[in-house]
Amino acid sequence: MTLTLDETELDRLFPAYLCLDLHGTIASAGPSLQKLNDGDFVGRDFFDVLQLERPNDVTDIEALRRTQAPLILQACGNGTLRLRGIVVEKPDCLYLLLGHIPEVDPTLQKTPLSFSDFSPTDGSLDILLAAEVRKALLDDAHALAVELREEKRAAEAANVAKSSFLAAMSHEIRTPMNGVLGMASVLSQTGLEASQRDMLDIITQSGQSLLTILNDILDLSKIESGKLEIERTSFCLDEIVRSCEALFGMKAEEKGLAFDIQVREGAHGTYHGDPTRIRQILNNLVSNAIKFTDKGGVDIRVRRTDTREPGVVRLEFEVEDTGIGMHSETTERLFSPFTQADSSTNRQFGGTGLGLAISKRLCRLMDGWIQATSEFGTGSMFSFFVQVAVNDEASLPKPEATPFNHQSTEPVSRGLRILAAEDNKTNRILLRAFLEPLDADLTMVKNGREAVDAWRIRDFDIALMDIQMPVMDGIAAVKEIRGCESRERLVRIPIIAVSANAMTHQVCEYLEAGMDAHIAKPIDQAELLQLIGLMTQSPPGHTEAGVGNARAW
Amino acid sequence: MYGMIQQAARDMVLARYGEEVWQAVLGESGLTSEHFISAQAYDDTITFSLLSAIGTLSDMHQDELLEEFGKFWIEFAEASPYSSVLRMAGDDLVTFLSNLDRMHASIKSTMPQTAVPSFQLLNANDGHIQLVYRSERQGLAPFVRGILHALLKKFGHTGDISTRPTDGAVVFDIVLHAAEAA
Description:
The complex is a heterodimer of chains A (553) and B (182). Chain A contains 16 helices and 20 strands. By secondary structure, chain A is of the alpha+beta class. In chain A, the strands form 3 sheets. In chain A, strands 7, 8, 9, 10, 11, 12 and 13 form a 7-stranded mixed beta sheet that branches. By secondary structure, chain B is α+β, with helices and mostly antiparallel strands. The longest helix of chain B is centred in the middle third of the chain and has 18 residues, at 93-110. Chain B is globular and about 50 Å long.
């Protein structure tokens, strides 16, 4: 059977064909090549205008006529035009039945070709389209990544805004709550009937519970906004354990639970890290264990293991209970914020569901980890570790060096001349009540400007300075006072910063401004009185002692 | 349909009505994601619920909306990574229309899961063009009509387009205005 094609059919099937005479001169070309080269091919020697890439041993018309191999060729001087096909020998000529090789590199998709340049019998046009699809996929993926990155950024910004809002609101709620608790504290020192004292206890306990919730929210907000700082200070592990036992031993006993703490050999001793946060995690776990256990007991185990880093060890804690336990799916979401085992847990046991989320984040901040295993109806075991530096005994602070009894509220100094700057009316009333036992000569002002003015006209033994105040804040006031003292060679007045903003960098800022000590709101009356005693008995700048939440330098 | 349709719908709503309406469209259509991959096949119901929501919120009849969408489609495709495919389809209206079927054949070859329409150029003489459109999907002739209007504009023509159903297909009669007959 013989297939004969007329010129139109040949053009349609092989738009890029070439017909050579027996001397290698191009006699005719398909419409695609004629269009692309303005018919420039016709009449010219094949080897002058086209270069064979394959087969690479064909250099003359005779070799071309004999070859059975597929051809790949390109127009000389035009790298974008590449063709492939075969040689069909006829008695008086050679037909090169060719098709365009589509350029699949998207960056080179500047081809002058159009649909009609491609044969409908092969897939070359489809390959070109597939290359476009691939390019579009890459573009889509890139655009999607950009959009997702932007959405992630926006979500993070919204989260930070949420955290800031929560922090601000918590702070705002804490201020009046300080007033409530402070006044309750002052009231408790007055003569009350038994029933009144019971009511006052409920006010105090409820207020403390609310403060705990607020502190949780503040903690989580700080962590999520990256503002929570882990302290590096010397501490004694045994003290953390003892305080835990003191705090929860009685509660366990009240519920009829066994309560046992074991510190493995080798773990005792002193370390360098953040004892407050370690205590917070441990207390949270132990508190939960007791809360969710009605019979049996709670076991706490502490051990120390080495790390690869010299001088750094892991302190590992396990808190195991025989309580209600959890299903595995519950355990998986325990450490997410605002998540409790189930909604009934909140109704039955209360709490914000933030404790474990905070603990997890605190562990991470201390290069550690926290996990839980549990069996429903049998009990749970929470374990966590943090990395701390080993410490030598000599660098430990010695709390016993302070001349004050931590539990005592007895005034150390009486008749002191005290300047107190506080813009909040409730706090002023509270401060006045707290200082009552000192029988002090108290001058109360409402902002930093008034504090500086009062200090200029009167002598004071000590000043209590709020930080955020209108007109002039506490830092500016202290700077002005210190400047005057320096210029006029005046006796330096001890100044205690009084602020709810007690993060490490904030306290550093107060000290750099010229404060001598800091006490955090909510103010504990005993701590305040002890700190005032400490500051008025020891020359400022020469004392290094800690009293609860207060710090003096 | 492939995600390119959804992408175009999103761009059209954003360009003409803004972000707020687009978010409302997403809510109305029940779509959970606004990210579309152009070469990924999506269930037709997604596309139609999206278009239905746009029609509801833009207060446009569905046929009217589809025609507007067809006009926007060419604009969208020319700005997309597939612009070179459009360019290769032809430099004039008749060539372009004659290559429409081949373009869709290649799309079918490249994306075998998709159902693509077919186009047959019956006649292109004396300013009268007849194009036969066939599709497995019903009701999209207004979309094609919008595309043809956009192509007239793209190639510098004005003209009238009428449609008539015939044997499971739709014939588009395009009459170019006399001064610019193809």
